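Cross-posted from the bioinformatics board.
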Amino acid sequence: MDIPRGYRLKKVLMDHVSMDRTLTRMVHEVLERSRGGEDLAFVGIKRRGDVLAARMARKLEKVVGGEIPLGKLDITLYRDDLSLLDFQPRVGRTEIPFYIEGKRVVLVDDVIFTGRTIRAALDALMDLGRPKAIQLAVLVDRGHRELPIQPDYVGKVVPTSHSENVLVFIEEVDHEDKVILVEAEDAQG
Amino acid sequence: MLRGRDLVALADLSGEEILYLLETAQAMKEVLTRDIKKVPTLRGKTVVNLFFEPSTRTRTSFEIAGKRLSADVVNFSAATSSLTKGETLKDTARNIEAMVVDAVVVRHKASGAVRYLARELDVPVINAGDGSHEHPTQGLLDIFTIKERKGSVEGLKVAIAGDITHSRVARSDIHGLLKLGCQVVVVGPPTMVPPDVERLGVSVSSSVEEVLGEVDVVIMLRIQMERQSSPLFPSLREYSRYFGLNMEKLKDVSRDLLIMHPGPVNWGVELSPEVAYHPRNVILDQVTNGVAVRMAVLYALIGG
C-alpha cells in the first residue's frame, strides 16, 4: 500500500471484507431497482472502476444466472482538462464487447469527486450508442461536486476536506483491497 | 510521452517513445470501429496540411485523423498557393502560423525542409515526407501493422526491397525497426542501395528470392517511374524478375510471411497483380492503421 509523498494516513475506510460486503449490497440494490436484472450491463471506468464492475457483474450472475454484459471505458479522449495538465495521460483502450443500444447500463467508478470524470464517461458512452438508461455506482462518494451529477448507488459516503484524498486499492491492480483516507502533511489540524 | 515538440524523424525518437505512440494508436484504432467515429479530444484545435508535393493518401489520412479527433483540418497545396508567385518556404509557413494554428503537417520534396521549418516555427511540425530523408508516420504505421499481426516486433527479421537510396519510407522503417530490436535486410540493385548502408546496422542482399525464406516480413517499395529519366536499372521486366514479388516466388514460402507496401503499387512491377489477393498481403491494413497512427501522433503533440 503506497501513500503518495506528502500525505499521511488518516483512516482506513474499508478492508477486503467490508469492500466485498459493500459491493454485494450495491448489487442487490441494482437488482431491486431493475426488477429481475433484465437488459442490465456493467461498464467500469478505467483503471479501477472496470475491476469493480467485473466483480459486481460476477456477483449479479450468481444471483440471476446467465451472463451479464461487461465493458471497460477509457475516458482520456473525453477529458475536459487535457490542456490544463502538465503531463499527458496515456490513452487506454475502450472495450465494450456488446451493443449498448437498449441496455440499462450501470456505470461503475471507484470514487466520485468533482463529477467531471462521470461527465466524460457519459459522453463516451453516448458516442457508442443509445442505452435505455444509465445509472451510476461508486464505491466512495467524497463530495465536492462541480457538476450536477449524483450516483444512484453508493458504497460509502465520506465527507472530506480539500486537503484530504480518498485512495482505493484493488487487488487486481494494487495487490490488496483497501480504501483509505489520507491528509496532506502540511494541512492545518 | 514524447520529449520533443515536433515529429521530424523516427531517428530522433527512442524505442520507448515509438512504443508509446504505437500503444496510443492501438486505442485510437478502437475509435475507428465505432458507428460514431469521432471523439472530442482536439476540439478547437486547427491542423494545417501544408503539402508542397502531390499526395492523396497521406494528406487524406492526416485529414481523417484530425477530424476523428474533432480538430479543424485545413489543406494547403502548393499548386494553388503563392509559391507560384515566388513566396519562400519560410514566408509561406510563417504566414500560416500567423493565422493561429496548432500544428502544421508538412510534405516537401527537399530532404531537410521539414527540420528547417520545425526550427523556424513555434507550433509543432509533423513530417509527412521530406525528399529522401524520412516519412515517420509511414514508418510508424508499418511497425504498427507488423506488431498487430505478429504480436511483438522484437527479434523479427524484416526485408525492405526496392530503391533504398531514394526512399524516405525505407529510412523511417530502418530507424524504427532497429530501435525496437528487429533485424533488417535491404534488397535492391546496386544502383539503388547506398554504398555504406551497413553502417545503419542493416545487411544487404541482391535478390528478393534469396531472403524470402528467412524473413518474417517483406516491405516492397514503390519503383518511382518519375525517376526513370536516368534509369537505375535496365528494364522494368528485369527489375521485376529480380526484385519483384510474384506467386511463383511465394510458392515455397510457407511461414507467416507478411507482405507490405507503402502504396501506391505499380502492379506488374514490384508486385505481380495476383499478389493483391494473397492472404498475407496486409497493404490495406496499413492504410487503415495509418489513420490510427496519425491520430496518436496528433494527440501526442497537441492533445494537452
